[in-house]
Amino acid sequence: MQRADQALLFRALADPHRLTILATLAQSEHEVCVCEFTAGLPLNQPAVSHHLKVLRDAGLVRAERRGTWVYYTLAGDARSRLASALSLVLDDTPTRRRAARSVLFVCVHNSARSQMAEAFVNQFCREVLVARSAGLEAGALNPLAVEAMREIGIDIGRNATQAVFDVMESGARFDYVVTVCDETSAERCPVFPGVASRLHWSFLDPAAFSGSWEERLEQTRRVRDAIRARVTAWCNELAAHGAR
Questions:
Q1: 75 Cβ partners below 8 Å, 6+ apart?
Q2: Buried b (16+ CB within 10 A) or exposed e, 114-145
Q3: Of 12, 49, 70, 222, which is most buried by a Cβ count within 10 Å?
Q4: Is 181 known to be catalytic?
């Protein structure tokens, strides 16, 4: 994470009302509209909308318009980005600064494989990597992936999905971009400026599985375990070589 990205995050949080809004979204089990915020804040609707825009510009909040209303959710990677920004400030050792790298996992719809890979890195590999994920096209979270991850104690059910081109247009920079779809789909992934290494890991797509729910879930578990094994091996390798 670059210093400019850290500063943007901290500026977005430098207001008590924005902290309240962010906490509300983090604790909410559903999308929140502006009218719900105004009921709990001493602000009118335009003021709340302004604060939400600041949080959106910082990549902490996502918005979706439906008719005349806009509904807000916490960005799927908000927690990991904030944790990374804070840890890089507090841990000022040269080793830590060299080791903290960023990776973007990409699959077709950001609905299963890339979400699982992101979660495993941020759960088990924080000393080496900070992960985000995206899709060639933004889709909806696959309930099979949500359930498979929940079974091992990782909740991705409230994550948002995003398109890789939106990430690219945001100016985000990554040390690694890892495509986790088939090779034909991976060829559609744009080339990110400044990327030091691009990798391809091919995993089956849970969206293509057939059979009963339990049969498809069992196949998704196998994909989950394969992704976890690949992430674990990669993290160990990076840690052993100083994330070079």
A1: 59, 60, 61, 62, 81, 160
A2: bbbbbbbbbbbbbebbbbbbbbbebbebbbbb
A3: 12
A4: yes
Q: Which of 19-23, 96-100, 101-105 holds the top average pLDDT? A: 101-105
The domain over range 78-240 is classified in CATH as 3.90.1150.10? no
Q: Are strands 61-66 and 101-107 parallel, antiparallel or unpaired?
A: unpaired
Q: Locate tokens 């709340």: which residue?
A: 48
Closest-CA residue to 218 (of 151, 156, 120): 151
9, two tokens:
């995050």
Instruction: Determine which one of 35, 107, 125, 235 is catalytic.
Output: 107
CATH number of 3-74: 1.10.10.10
The domain segmentation of the chain, as residue ranges, is 3-74, 78-240
CA atoms within 13 A on the CB side of 94: 0
Looking at this protein, which amino acid is placed at residue 224?
A: R
Which residue out of 33, 35, 125, 189 is catalytically annotated?
A: 189
Question: Which of 106-115, 117-126, 180-189 comes out lowest in average pLDDT?
Answer: 180-189
Q: Looking at 33, 125, 181, 235, which residue is catalytic?
A: 181
Q: Look at residue 39 in the predicted model and tell me its pLDDT.
A: 73
